Amino acid sequence: MRMYDIIEKKRDGGELTKEEINFFINGYCNENIPDYQVSALLMAIFLKGMNEKETSLLTEAMANSGDIVDLSEIEGFKVDKHSTGGVGDKTTLILAPLCAACGVPVAKMSGRGLGHTGGTIDKLESIPGFKTDISKEEFIKNVKEIGVAVVGQTGNLAPADKKLYALRDVTATVNNISLIASSIMSKKIASGADGIVLDVKTGSGAFMKTVEESVNLAELMVKIGKNMGRKTVAVVTDMDVPLGNAIGNSLEVIEALEVLKGRGPDDLKELSFELASKMLEISGLGDKNKCIKMVRKAVDEGLALSKFKEMVERQGGNVKAVEDYDLFKKAPFKYHFKSRDTGYIKEMNTNALGTASMVLGAGRETKESSIDHSAGIVLNKKKGMKVQKGELIATLYSSSMERIKEAERIIENSIIFSPSPVKKRPLILAEIN
């Protein structure tokens, strides 16, 4: 078998076989196939596409390129959740302890943030002392004993995806639905869960900008999951508006804790409860109404918050910080961003807000960049809200006034006002079962 023939076949619109896909993935991971040939195949895939069967085979090959996490020691139906990335998305911090409190084990591997989107691991590490690099044995032990653990992804989880993504990033082949779906699902399959709940974001702060694109991606990923023996469901959710009010690591942890205490922003509660109920539902605990009631009861009775405290304690964190937010690192500079106009906020570009948070120090421009856990933004006003001139729109936190000035400029340019009321679209736009 020759890579040349595989490239030629896809260039001409042919369907790749399992053997051809495995040959290409294994050869690239073993460094027997050079970057320039893989780049050519990626461009052929980008232009000619892949069908559902090919995409499932590519996902399987990428998942099998490294370690497959074995969760068989853990009793019960294990469920994972994945978000395609957004601004202010801190639902994992709520879902993991919440589902565990309802009896569904959550053994979650999460990533770090890059660019305008945040990462769950960075957020958890803003809790004083919290460790996300615990051993596999400790990871499994914690889930067996308390029902939950959230750790960083292993270095050898779907290594083919890491190599391919780096190449896609520099060859203008990122935005292809089959390549996106296989990238996401290969890591989820390799993570070892029995079921997967997908949160596919759409809008100005998301990778997929239109609802149609997002629905197509969600449907394809659900099909891939089912083809590979995983119970998989998805929701398509709005990311034209940040989720919740906090953007930035420690700020988002505090907001997530408020939800676990029965408070917090309505949109964050709505989506967190929806995703949690789906995780319970695919675990076989009942229909949607029953699962929603279980979720709310776990919050109302403080069970979810207690489970979060258990997780923090098990992973070396200071449990006192759950109640005393002053124990989180504080930013030395705070700035009140006030409105220059009166009217309704017609647009407040979510991508720009994420970029402004990164500029403040809450995110990374490159994988090597360090982050400031205390930096970020707390929004007082969001898209659709009425604002008076001089009224507080957001509070900015950073270690540098220069960073605050740059972030202020970005936010200022992201806002468009309207003299008349603005209609907001629903938070949950579609469900794929």
Briefly, what is this?
The chain is of the alpha/beta class and 433 residues long. It is built from 16 helices and 13 strands.
What structural keywords apply?
16 helices, alpha/beta, four-stranded mixed sheet, 15% strand, 3 domains, Transferase, Pyrimidine Nucleoside Phosphorylase, Chain A, domain 3, PYNP_C, Aldehyde Oxidoreductase, domain 3, Thymidine/pyrmidine_PPase, Pyrimidine Nucleoside Phosphorylase, Chain A, domain 2, 433 residues
Number of helices: 16
> What letter string, H or E per element, gives the SSE order?
HHHHEHEHHEHHEHEEHHHHEEHEEEHEE
First-to-last CA distance = 39 Å
Oligomer: single chain
Low-confidence stretches: none
How would you describe the overall organization of this protein?
The radius of gyration is 22 Å and the shape is globular. By secondary structure, the chain is α/β, with parallel strands linked by helices. The protein has a four-stranded mixed β-sheet, sandwiched between helices. It has a four-stranded antiparallel β-sheet with strand order 6-9-11-7. It has a three-stranded antiparallel β-sheet with strand order 10-8-12. It has helices spanning 3-11, 18-29, 35-48, 52-63, 91-101, 120-124, 136-146, 159-170, 177-190, 211-227, 249-260, 266-282, 288-300, 303-314, 350-362, 401-414; strands at 79-83, 106-110, 148-152, 195-202, 231-238, 246-247, 333-338, 343-348, 376-379, 386-387, 392-398, 415-418, 428-432. The relative contact order is 0.14. InterPro entries: Glycosyl_Trfase_fam3, Glycosyl_Trfase_fam3_N_dom, Glycosyl_Trfase_fam3_N_dom_sf, Nuc_phospho_transferase, PYNP-like_C_sf, PYNP_C, Pyrmidine_PPas_bac/euk, Pyrmidine_PPase_CS. Residues 344-418 form the Pyrimidine nucleoside phosphorylase C-terminal domain. Pfam families: Glycos_trans_3N, Glycos_transf_3, PYNP_C. GO terms for molecular function: 1,4-alpha-oligoglucan phosphorylase activity; thymidine phosphorylase activity.
